[in-house]
Design brief:
alpha/beta, Rossmann fold, 5-stranded parallel sheet, two-stranded antiparallel sheet, 6 helices, 22% strand, oxidoreductase activity
Length: 195
């Protein structure tokens, strides 16, 4: 069965990433039965700033948190990255998590659900560059959630409620179709590398 990890890229208190990831998982479960979608929250792994003695490309991991993270990434065929935009880029925690491992990312597909004032489009552009170096094929389809139009807030310090417009649902289903198709298409390459 194809497994797609929904990676929550922010670890910040009060973040909106978890509710966005739950929305993605809910739509995926109802629209794409037969595909295993799993939320992988970077905050659950307690990754410090990269603290491995050897480069990730060596595949030699000396820390328990790295091994745990490597297993989570390796267990997926593709990914949907859920990211906000911090200062025109991705969160530092997400970049750090990407840098921790290497081969576990290779020959997989990824799509993006961004959220922010401009839908995190600049963060997604940076993610595309980093993932290319990790040998991840990124799909063109993406979701750009606006804090002004796709969330409602009761207080500025609360994550708010996600209220995406109907066009966001169709954008998400297109993204999921692409990620699943590319993940399956890349399977022979992953299997060839493993053989």
């Amino acid at each position: 069965m194809t497994k797609i990890g929904i990676v929550v890229g922010s670890t910040r208190p009060g973040r909106r990433g978890r509710i966005v990831a739950e929305w993605v998982a809910g739509v995926a479960a109802s629209e794409r039965p037969g595909i295993d979608f799993e939320i992988i929250d970077v905050a659950d792994f307690g990754l410090p700033l990269l603290d491995e003695a050897l480069p990730p490309a060596s595949g030699v991991y000396g820390k328990a948190h790295t091994v745990r993270w490597a297993e989570a990434v390796a267990g997926c065929d593709g990914f949907v990255f859920v990211t906000p935009e911090y200062n025109r880029s991705m969160p530092g925690a997400l970049k750090n998590a990407l840098d921790f491992v290497y081969a576990e990312w290779n020959d997989k597909a990824a799509g993006f659900v961004g959220y922010g004032l401009q839908g995190a489009t600049r963060a997604v552009e940076h993610l595309r560059l980093v993932l290319a170096e990790l040998k991840v094929a990124t799909v063109r389809s993406q979701v750009a959630l606006s804090l002004h139009h796709d969330f409602t807030f009761s207080a500025p310090t609360e994550p708010g409620d996600l209220t995406p417009g109907p066009h966001q649902h169709s954008a998400l289903t297109a993204l999921l179709d692409d990620v699943v198709a590319w993940s399956r298409a890349l399977a022979p390459i992953r299997e060839g590398v493993a053989a």
